[in-house]
Inverse folding.
């Protein structure tokens, strides 16, 4: 716990890039709680499997048959909310950490929770991609420097777990990256925490 907050690292894998109206869907989700490093990982069955992007499937090494397997979306929501409830805190005391979490994963997560008339249980977000980019600028990295998860881990010299483009592996890598960034003397993590309460009417 830092600054009175408990941090959760999260990563999702989806069937594509179009989150609106569940055109593409979350098929993997993993989360790590910082206080005890407990990890929750779930494989989720796609409802609209026929709309899956073949590029996304190739990236994650999945087939159409693979994304037809897993738990129902409503069960994922239940499992995530029960996992979070173990900390006995409210949304204002939790911060969700992820690599490109605000511009990508958050939108899929909000869409999924809205589908079941629920509010996603986070209001605070911390993006390790933005933190890595800011650090790279301070270190004088050139325009050729990339800030995807792999490149950011290499920039910080973090240990990398196998399983790239799987929610379980990428969440572990994000967690290790986040720890390094939080401890880095040239990173002011507080300026990167964004408060974005779930607004079901947001049009982005």
């Amino acid at each position: 716990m830092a600054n009175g907050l408990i941090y959760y690292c999260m990563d999702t894998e989806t069937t594509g890039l179009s989150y609106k109206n569940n055109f593409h869907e979350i098929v993997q989700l993993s989360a790590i709680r910082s206080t005890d490093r407990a990890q929750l990982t779930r494989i989720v069955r796609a409802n609209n499997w026929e709309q899956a992007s073949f590029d996304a499937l190739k990236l994650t090494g999945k087939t159409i048959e693979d994304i037809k397997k897993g738990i129902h979306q409503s069960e994922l929501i239940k499992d995530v909310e029960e996992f979070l409830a173990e900390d006995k805190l409210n949304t204002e005391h939790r911060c969700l950490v992820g690599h490109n979490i605000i511009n990508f994963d958050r939108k899929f997560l909000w869409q999924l929770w809205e589908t079941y008339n629920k509010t996603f249980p986070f209001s605070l977000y911390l993006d390790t991609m933005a933190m890595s980019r800011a650090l790279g600028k301070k270190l004088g990295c050139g325009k050729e420097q990339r800030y995807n998860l792999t490149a950011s881990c290499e920039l910080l010299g973090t240990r990398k777990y196998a399983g790239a483009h799987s929610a379980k592996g990428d969440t572990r890598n994000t967690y290790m990256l986040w720890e390094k960034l939080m401890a880095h003397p040239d990173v002011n993590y507080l300026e990167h925490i964004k408060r974005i309460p779930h607004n079901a009417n947001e049009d982005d």
About this structure: Residues 28 and 137 are 32 Å apart (CA to CA).
